């Protein structure tokens, strides 16, 4: 399955929304980490790597914890 850019953007927004629900000390760390990871991977072209990172993000939302 190939992940579209709109799916990645939705995941990014969902992760940031989830970060707003965390305790104050965890909130800033979580949001900073999410932003940094997305910036670091914004130029990925390998479909397998994109899918892997997308699945990691979904796992965080499902488990409600950082993996």
Automatic annotation (TrEMBL):
It comes from the Eukaryota. Residues 7-57 form the Complex 1 LYR protein domain. The lineage of its organism: Eukaryota, Metazoa, Ecdysozoa, Arthropoda, Hexapoda. Pfam families: Complex1_LYR. InterPro entries: Complex1_LYR_dom. This is Complex 1 LYR protein domain-containing protein. It comes from Cryptolaemus montrouzieri.
